[in-house]
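Worked Example 4.2. Read the sequence first, then its structure tokens.
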Amino acid sequence: MKLGKINGIVIKLHFSTLLIIVIVAYFSATYYLSLVPEAGILDLLFVGIINGIIFLVSIFIHELCHSLMAQHYKLKVSEIELFLFGGVSKIEEEPKTPKSEFFISAVGPLSSLIMGFIYLILYFLDFLFALSLPTWILVTFFYSGYTNVMLGLFNLLPAFPMDGGRVLRAYLWNRRKDIISATKTATKIGKFLGYVLVALGILQLVSLGQYAGLWLIFIGLFLASASKKSYAQTVNEYILSHIYVKNVSISQKYVLHYELPLIDALKDYFVNFNQLYYPVVSEPGKFVGIIHLNDIKNVPIEERSKYIVGNIMRDITLFPVVYYEETSRDVIKKFSTIANELHIAIIKESENRNIINFLSEKELMNALKNIKIYKQQV
């Protein structure tokens, strides 16, 4: 569910976030009941909901600090989404330096710790100055302080891709001058700590009969899986940032004429040469569009004999332009900003030059796959 925008960042709330509010509400209301045994159901609901909402806002502030710091370092942040396991700031690319990685990662837990200590100070001020605040306010101060401090400390665990794991990676990256090596080490620690949480959860569930162990198991499995995926993403981004368009550009052997009958295009080109798309020209060297196999599929079989290629091609202006000296990561970023689902780019040698080639996302991913296989061998 989209809630709005802050500084260009879309704020989303996943329905699973409601479970966080319920869990925090239950434990804070239980704590309140232990202090005020005569509390009614409405009092308990009020205390629970207040604390649940405060904790949700705290998670949001934690993620917002990550996002604003990322924007400070010129990284694009598309959205913040709150969900079952907390929240995530969707930063579109990896930090460019160990310093930026450190500050982007550390600011979230720091904000949680600051909020937590502020709430706890307010709680203890009541005892120091005998303010006699209502019990529900004291419970809110204490519980909000406790949960924020725990949130900050938990996120500082050196388990990649958690904040602490990213801080560790920034340190190793700065020391080794190798982001892949740093990520590999941080990932191993992240997976190990994930499995430790799973083991603790099982122990808590089996030996002590506490269902809270299920939460540890879920978090541990999520962390182990996220570590593996984040490592793969880092490796992919690193490789893509070192592959230039000119290195993966494959010359198009065939182009189709605008007036070519659609039936002939399907039979003589799509079937014979097993290609998914072809550039379309109105005259030699003048590209006017691209026709994809999906475009032909959308034409009823009985109608195809009535069409020429030009009737169903997609206009050339609908496709992003990339240049020889751009990296493959730049191309992927351009694909993510367009509505065209084909993800095919026009290649030019420079801005004012003519079109010289085309590159699809599938061709790019095949190049990435081949390079990764080669790097494993050497």
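Now turn to a second chain, presented in exactly the same format:
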Amino acid sequence: MNIDAIREFGLAFAGAKENLQWGDDLCFKVGGKIFLMLGLDNPRLCFKCTPDSFAELIEREDIRPAPYVGRYKWVMLDRIDAVGWDELRELIRTSYEMVAANAPKGSRPSSAPKKSAGKKSATKKTKERARYPGRKRKG
């Protein structure tokens, strides 16, 4: 695995774009939100994880919570070969899916996973009743 392979993989996702930020960091974004950062001068990676994989990854050598964003379950790989290529691809895919699901609706790629809604949206009549609880309906 090398920088070019990681770059190619990061750009393969729907709606993924890259730009150079903060000096030598190549940032991969979906919907304007970063899902992967690749250091070019000093090769290193930074991406978002699930809470379970975050806890497991930071126990490994050459992997630590990412500066500034570690509290949001981002990890930094001090070496790009700190994990195997197959595992790294899955971790990057997970990061993309989590970030794409939380991107603003208008900027989400059409194939990005939808954010779970939790509660169902109330209908117009239900909202009307909640707004005017003493109002009688026509019968």
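Notes for the reader: Strands lie at 17-21, 25-30, 33-39, 44-48, 63-65, 74-77. The chain has one domain: 3-131.
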